[in-house]
Amino acid sequence: MNENPNNKLPHYRQSKARHPHACQECRGRIEQGETYHSWSEQDPRWTRRWSVTKRCADCDGLAKFIEVDCGEGAVALKHLPDAVIKSGCREVLVRWVAILQKRGLPAELIQPYRELLQEGVQ
């Protein structure tokens, strides 16, 4: 079997949604016409199956903020919620809560982050 190892590398692209999608970071809705970022990579368990990870523009911006302004390093895909808590930065938490509210997540999913803000994250 002649396999090109480059086929397994993740492919990044920025797209405009032609139909609604779900962000795999905040679990919010990416609306039609909205810009989002996606990464495609070959699933290691299947030779011909690809997995696609989608991140809304808000979450992508927050991940870049954590990486650059907070000096935490790159935020791995599907690990933004963990990076928000790990950062310990009040501004990151405030932005995260705003994203969750904007994306229409239920209040019970936002509440733990609000409690962290009330506890006095710096």
- Overall form: globular
Kindly report the spatial arrangement of strands forming the biggest sheet: 1-4-5
According to CATH, what is the class?
Alpha Beta
- CA-to-CA gap between the ends? 55 Å
Number of helices: 4
The class by helix and strand makeup works out as: alpha+beta
- Which bin fits the share of residues in helices? 25-40%
Domains (count): 1
CATH architecture assignment: 2-Layer Sandwich
Strand content: 15-25%
Main sheet specs: 3 strands, antiparallel
CA-based gyration radius: 16 Å
- Write the H/E string, N to C: EEEEEHHHH
The total strand number stands at 5
CATH topology type: first zn-finger domain of poly(adp-ribose) polymerase-1
Contiguous uncertain segments of 5+ residues: 1-6
Assembly state of the chains shown:
single chain
- What value does the average pLDDT take? 84
